[in-house]
Amino acid sequence: MPGPFRLWSVSRILRSQRTGPYIRGLAQLFAESSAIPSTMSQLLLRLEQVIGSSLDPVERAIASAKRACYLARVGRFSEVEVAITELRAVFGDGRSGRVTAWIMLAEGLLGLFERLSPKAFDRVFRSQFLGVALHDEDVLAVASAWKAHFEFEVSNFEAMTRSLRTVLASASDSSHEAMSRASMVLFNAYMLCGDRTEAQRWFGLARNHSLSSGDQAGIDALIFNRAAFGVAWLRAARCSGEVRVDMLAAVRMEVNSARNLQQINGITAFAHLIDLSDARLLMLEGKFERAIAGLQAVRRASPFADYNFNQALIDLEVGYCWQRLGEVEASLALVAEARATSFSEMDIDDQLVAAWICRELATVDRRLGDVAVAQAVFQELEARYVLANEALLTRLAEFRS
Fold first, then answer.
1. Rounded distance, CA 147 to CA 163, Å?
2. Which residues, including other chains, have CB under 8 Å from residue 62's CB and lie 6 or more apart?
3. pLDDT digits (tens, 9 = 90+) for 319-330
4. pTM of the full structure
5. CA distance 211 to 233
């Protein structure tokens, strides 16, 4: 699932003459992902074969826990709960530390993908701790990769880099699950900073590891993240000026690709996040009536995290759409309360967009806010946005090729 989208350098990319390579890069990644073979359920099939044929109860239990981890990622939550209950019934006494570690990881991923539960991180952290205590590098690498994912989502980039170092130190050439997730975290992080060259490199590594293990869910997540980050790029760039039509077309292809792949593969986890990206892309495309319908529908979806969703921000976005359609009174009814809301708990990019919308609305109608105040708030957030991403780039330096 996408987290903090702070791509400050995208505005420089969009204003430069170097957008051609970016568009070609998107097209290349789209072509690669479209070439995925239809046997991508190999990972799940392989785990089920172990469960059905192994005579070793610990091996069967670990395979069952790994299967639960996979099912959590694709939204088959009731099956995950059954598997965890059955595993706890036998191994709840702690007879196998390795099994316990994998059960904890499955519980963590269930909490993440079903409910975005804050407690999910604790289960992943405990799984990693057991991996260290047991000197089990497989558990340690996979749990550390997922720990890095959580830390990225909440913008704890210092902890994220420590977790990624652990993955790279403990993973072997065959640690495809750990390396695909760690590579995906780095892909997301470099996308945040607008470094598409490094982002594409880590995208390729994540894709190759997912293909090697037959991990359909990993491929789906990559395509989902690429679509969500593409929208975030344009959304942030819009705060600095108009975005190019060819960029909009490229990202529209990404969003449609992600939605189609989720529908084909029956993935329900976080499907509403694609709906949110689609609605926000419709705003950027100037299709305001459709954007309003999409944003209103997303209000009823769940789960969302506090750091990347706020009903007041949806009010601002819908109000902006109404204003652009010439319905100023409808806009005023929504915006009056929303613009007084504090968005400080949200990701910095969302704070930036909220401030930009408030400034734009105040510019066209004084009843929608004081222009000078709105401009000052926007400029402050723009500066913080740049500084946050410069700091992240510095932390990522050790992972650069």
1. 7
2. 98, 99, 102
3. 999 999 999 888
4. 0.85
5. 27
